[in-house]
């Protein structure tokens, strides 16, 4: 009888809360839809602009086959349209070189940053350090605080240094500066990864005869692999989109895609269709990375969320 009374008294309260729950859910989904629109519309605008003519761009037409008929003008200017893809094109050759430079600089810097950052993060996670007044937490914050520094502050020092080292307009120079740029993020991600791994696993490996390096390479790194993949992917994305140092430290040989996108200007103004075509080709690899490697990024970034 008591159970029946409790059930009858709780049902009205649940039904009374249902309209409030539905309202909250609708507001949340509306906010998510709005944010998805804000995030995806620039990509949609860029892709559709690559199929517009000058008139369609200036008049602000948005919907293909409704407001305008798609045209290959932007892709034709790059030698990537169906009627020019097999013909000789100096612009297409330049685009391929810039695309290759972006791949080498982004992948090389990310790989180097993951190696150096993993070692630094493991040291900060497992050992106690003291430099002047700074301890482990202070050193970690010092690395992360480098992201606050405006890149323009480093413009003159890097120009002078690279001129003396003969690294201007070289891929090696870009790889080095990109490594310094993404290293704080890699250290931050990997330290959280190593903090979630029990120290007892390494202690057991040391008892079994492994050295510190052996325990690190055989036990810790395989467990922290998702975090390393996430750090590598995020580093590639940041390096791929970097413009300031690529424009500052290169002139012809080592230019990357962002610099090529920004250079699409002519006597008549900005060639929006060409710029949109290059931008579309540049973001396609990142879109594919996000689609196929999303689970690795989420798994790596959330591994340190639960202690």
TrEMBL record:
Keywords: Cell membrane, Membrane, Transmembrane, Transmembrane helix, Transport. It comes from the Bacteria. Residues 99-293 form the ABC transmembrane type-1 domain. GO terms for biological process: transmembrane transport. It is a multi-pass membrane protein. Its main location: membrane. It is found in: Cell membrane. Pfam families: BPD_transp_1. GO terms for cellular component: plasma membrane. InterPro entries: BP-dep_ABC_trans_perm, MetI-like, MetI-like_sf. The chain crosses the membrane at residues 26-47, 99-121, 141-162, 171-191, 270-293. Belongs to the binding-protein-dependent transport system permease family. This is Carbohydrate ABC transporter permease. It comes from Ferranicluibacter rubi.
């Amino acid at each position: 009888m008591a159970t029946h009374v409790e059930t009858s008294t709780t049902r009205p309260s649940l039904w009374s809360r249902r309209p409030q729950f539905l309202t909250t859910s609708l507001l949340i989904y509306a906010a998510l839809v709005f944010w998805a629109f804000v995030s995806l519309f620039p990509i949609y605008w860029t892709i559709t602009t690559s199929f517009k003519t000058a008139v369609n761009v200036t008049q602000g037409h948005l919907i293909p086959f409704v407001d305008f008929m798609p045209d290959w003008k932007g892709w034709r200017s790059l030698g990537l349209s169906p009627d020019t893809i097999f013909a000789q094109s100096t612009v297409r050759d330049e685009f391929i070189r810039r695309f290759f430079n972006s791949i080498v600089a982004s992948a090389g810097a990310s790989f180097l940053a993951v190696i150096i950052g993993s070692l630094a993060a493991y040291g900060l996670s497992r050992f106690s350090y003291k430099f002047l007044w700074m301890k482990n937490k202070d050193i970690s914050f010092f690395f992360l605080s480098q992201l606050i520094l405006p890149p323009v502050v480093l413009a003159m020092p890097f120009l002078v240094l690279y001129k003396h080292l003969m690294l201007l307009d070289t891929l090696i120079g870009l790889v080095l500066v990109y490594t310094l740029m993404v290293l704080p993020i890699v250290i931050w991600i990997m330290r959280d990864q190593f903090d979630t791994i029990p120290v007892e696993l390494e202690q057991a490996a040391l008892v079994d005869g492994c050295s510190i390096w052996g325990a690190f390479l055989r036990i810790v790194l395989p467990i922290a692999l998702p975090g390393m993949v996430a750090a590598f992917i995020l580093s590639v994305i940041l390096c791929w989109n970097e413009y300031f140092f690529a424009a500052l430290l290169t002139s012809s040989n080592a230019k990357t895609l962002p610099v090529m996108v920004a250079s699409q200007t002519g006597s008549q103004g900005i060639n929006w269709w060409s710029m949109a075509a290059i931008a579309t080709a540049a973001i396609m690899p990142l879109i594919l990375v996000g689609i196929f490697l999303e689970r690795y990024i989420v798994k790596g970034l959330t591994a340190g969320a639960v202690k």
